[in-house]
Model the fold of this input.
Amino acid sequence: MHWRDCRTLVVGWADYVQVVVLRERTGMQSPTDASGPSLYAEISVLFRTDFVVCGLAQHRDHLLVLSYGDSTTTAVDANGQQRVRDAQPPELRMISRDLEEEASDVLALDGFPLLQPNDYALAHCAAANSDCWFVLSPKQLVSVRPRGLHDHVQWLAERADYKQALNDIEDARNNVGRWASSRDEVRDAEYQAIGEARAQALMDIGDTHEAALVCARVLPRTADPEAAVAWETWVFAFAEARALQDIAPHLPTGEPQLTSTAYEMVLAFLLATDTEQFRQLVLEWPPSLYNAYSVVLAAEDRLQKMDASEVEASQQLARTMALLYDRLNQPSKSLRFYLELFEPEILDRVRRENLFDAVRDKAELIMRYDDHMLNDNDVQLSERSQASGVQLLTDNTDAIPSASVVKQLVKSPEHLHVYLHALRGRDTHLSAPFADLQLELYAEYDPHLLLGFLRTSSAYTFDRALEVCEERALVPEMVYILGRMGDNHRALMLIIDRLRDVPRAIEFAREQGDPALWNDLVMYARDKPEFIVGLLELGGASARPTRVIRAIPPALHVPGIRRALARVLHDHHLQVDLSTDCRRILDRDCDVLSDRLRRLQHQGISSDGAQLCLACQQPLEEQMALSANTHSRSALAFWCGHVFHDACVLLPEVLSKTQLPSPFASSVGLGANQLKSRVVRGPRDQRAMLTQAKLDRSMLIRQFAPACPVCAEYDQQIAHQTTHSGWSPSERRDRDQASEPTESASKNELPPMQSLQI
Done:
């Protein structure tokens, strides 16, 4: 018997189990009834078993039953006679409230074949809150406790059910399931051992993916060296199974950190089998985990051995190598891969990080990058030369020399043509050393731009340019080159024979200004009506229409000659009228300017009293006051603007011959009696006489042609420099002859000297 609580009694008798509940009586009518018992027993549960009940106990909501064999105690032997059957070992059974047997453990006690049900007993431990019971037999005492997670796992492990054991441990650690209360019984080492056993079982059947997931769950992630050893052991196990791709995503990169050999082994395996996963791991793993140089060398070798059909894989590998080179701080090598992959905005990175030295030897890749970005074969040269890659090369010629770029692009002439065109647009001096090469490229790819290049450039070789144009029959360009070479006759013949362009031939002859060209043109056109009409209509006065008309053979029929002659006559009359009007205008302008010149020549020169004489450096007024007793009270001013005392410039004999005896004399030749007989009638007459005396004296001084001392000294210095300038006598003579008309014109316009008596 076992009391479940104070009113519930569980009774086991033979092969029956009863649950008896004590209940209170209700509805007592008389006092006599009240003297009876207040409780009565009621059997609430009764069931029969197939064993003999030896003991009962309560464990939480379950009933523990110590059973003995079954209810049959006899057996029939081989002879058909009944005999007592040997006893079986007792069992401890756990029965739920629903009368379902949930667990059963056989207890192989000592001497059990000879024992009977009355020899066994089940007793509860007297300790408080103790989940411990004792199974008693004549020879042995067995302690019975509830089975925990550790026992459960051990039991599953003995049966190689590692999957269930692992799941139960994880559920218990997550506080889920029946074993949650005993989750602390299984230590980490045991959990790891169960997990590794499960992983090994999966490896044995070839399920490496699931095995990798199990390893990721159970292997420790601590800084303990043993943790790293455990991980590396499994890395090598997966390597033997050629399944490193399964364990690679789960490898720890922090704690624990494995040896570089393990990481490099994984990367090498993925490099050969899965370039996408290789790239992902390179992105995720810190570069300190492995030797980046070794990985890069292996990747380069792999890239070179890839098939042309493995386009996507090779691109993935190239991106990975670019990333590795960036981590190794080698932008020159990483940019090569980025340019080959046409990575967007990579050129912006070059400008932003000033990586011009890194792309110095990658001109061809940059040009291909532009081609890919434009993505159109019909793009004009002007648009291609504005692409970002070309502009990068031309804007940074100090870091990327143009000579180096030309050397790299010489095997790709179309790219070289675009680069040189852009370089010339930026600075013509930078492209000048490559002028001969550039004109060949223009002739090959853009002939319509060649003539403009020939006109604006002077760095190319004429002979080479003519040879290139002759090879491609570029007649207009040949005409221009021959004109610059001075072979005007050959150029004119090309226009006439090859182009048969009369207006162009006339324009060429007019530009050159060579009369011999007009003669050649007239002689060529004398028997060709279309050329005759063209010369008469377009040649103008330069073609000399009379000469053209005289050269026409008498029997030649020239269509349109009347119209051409009418135009010639009209142009001639128009030219005559224009010449007449122009001459009339010039004559009127000459008259106006001559009058202005005369007025200027007759004006005096203003001078204040403080002005100095350039010879004696004395004020003009002071010297004139000192010489008041003499008759020299005048100053001389030359057209150059220099002013002197007359005594400082004129020789004494000239000064004596040009002095006036009195300021009131009207001329130099008057005597004393004539002066006395002259009547002065007031201030006005005095001023008139003084002015006349000054004019007379000026005329007299001009006869001696005095020169300005300052200008004379300057002329001597110029003559001395010219003598010692290294010019030969013939060169100086030619120079003097060339300058004579100017000097004579200046002498006619401005007199050399004007003397005034002040």
